Amino acid sequence: MKILFYMPHADAASWLYDFARVLPDAELREWQAGDTAPADFAIVWRPPRDMLAGRDDLRAIFNLGAGVDAILALEHERPGTLPRNAKLVRLEDTGMAPQMAEYVTHAVLRYMRRFDEYQMLQSARRWQELEAHPRETFTVGVLGLGVLGAHVAQAVAAFGMPVRGYSRSARQIDGVTTFAGEAQFDAFLDGVKVLVNLLPHTPDTGDVLNARTFSKLARGAYLINVARGGHLVEQDLLEALASGQLAAATLDVVREEPLPPDHLFWREPRITITPHISALTLREESVAQVAQKITALMRGETVSGVVDIGRGY
Ligand code: NAP
Ligand code: GLV
Description:
The protein has 313 residues and is α/β, with parallel strands linked by helices.
């Protein structure tokens, strides 16, 4: 069995070493430009088109992340790029769910306890008490109730704020009021104080964080975008902050990554930026999951986490 590996900026030698330990019979190699030699599986993150185009020998492509938008964009831009019969399999949790829960609860609590405002008061050397936000109306709405969104919604609910969740199909999650489908979108948004985005980036969800969406939230609401930059209409965020409809935002993802040095977001004190780190791909957990699925596919078994290309996630 031949396996190609491609992950820019990663320590490829360590990944290949770890895969070789759990798949001792595999011939593993790091893909280099021009390599068209046969392969059965590809393990990738943001692969270049040349790596996958015309590789009809591939049985599966394993994406070293939860979101497959970058790979599907290759197909969208030039149909026929993805190998015809290869399954596209994404990571499921592999330690990302607890990281995402830490990141989002940290941001929600920071806003609920007004630590962002206390930080600004400290910068101005002002000793001033602010009124507490009432917990019972500090409603948190989570867009996307998949592997990560469901875990995050439950983690936030443990702090006693009302939590709502929104998905494509109906979901039931203890402690979370759930909404499904476009017909329930406005009811989900109505009066939400913190909007958390954990949707996949698909043709249906791009630009979902826009002026209309913000207008349905409680006045002075907060935005936490930990999914993809393409979900956010950046100008609408700046205008919502200027008008007071939004009080602040935490962005782990932006349209152009890295965020250019002259981008307005760097200069807006109510925007907190992190460099796409809310849930990192962890090597040990990811190697174990991918290797287990390759072994299952080799035995002719089915695996979970297979992407529905038409749906986009
Ligand atoms: P997932 O398990 O596929 O869950 C996706 C959720 O979104 C599902 O609940 C799905 O609804 C819902 N959804 C999809 N399209 C929808 C639509 N048009 N309307 C309403 N709901 C829709 O994905 P995941 O593993 O939780 O990951 C979510 C995303 O997080 C990834 O795609 C990635 O972009 C992002 N992410 C970011 C980082 C980071 O470091 N910033 C790390 C990991 C992942 P159903 O339940 O009905 O299918
Ligand atoms: C990271 O952004 C991922 O999709 O895993």
